[in-house]
Amino acid sequence: MSDRTIKSAAKEAKIRLKGGFWQNHREDVIGHVDKARINGVCATDVVAYYSQKMEGKSLTREDEFYLKVKQILDEEGEVSDMLGRLTDQSVFGTLDYASRQRYMMDLSERYQRALMRYKKEKIFR
Predict the structure, then answer these.
(1) pLDDT tens-digit profile of 26-42?
(2) What are the pLDDT digits (tens) for 65-104?
(3) Considering the entire predicted model, what is its pTM?
(4) Residues 6+ apart with CB under 8 A from 120
């Protein structure tokens, strides 16, 4: 709890309890475990995945990127110009040649991680 106080953490926990967050989460995980068993996936893998996912609940930069990738994959599938769609043109336009190469390599690595996450989550859905 870096810059949060115990009082603010308790207040957030109370809100989650009142809103039924944990009950909904439990039902969601149980539903995914049942689907995973039908598809031949180990139930402990599903529980471990959702436990890991719950640890960092706030959206990170990587999560925002993943949601953008997920939206494209859900709507159109794997497209040949994915890196072009994911490129931030305002940043890319200001870079020199070497920096553009590094930017594209980094973007490609991030996309590969997001794609693997997407495929992993697709198994659990």
Answers:
(1) 666 666 666 666 666 66
(2) 888 898 899 888 888 889 999 998 888 888 889 888 998 9
(3) 0.55
(4) 49
The span from the CA of 46 to the CA of 39, in Å, is 12
For residue 33 the two structure tokens come to 């475990």
Tokens of 87: 């490129």
Cβ–Cβ under 8 Å, residues 72 and 82: yes
Report H helices in the chain: 6-18, 21-38, 43-55, 61-76, 82-86, 89-92, 97-124
Degrees to nearest 5, angle at CA 113 with 48 and 68: 100
Q: How confident is the model at residue 11 (pLDDT cuts 50, 70, 90)?
A: confident
Asked if 60 and 88 touch (Cβ cutoff 8 Å), the reply is: no
The DSSP letter of residue 39 is T
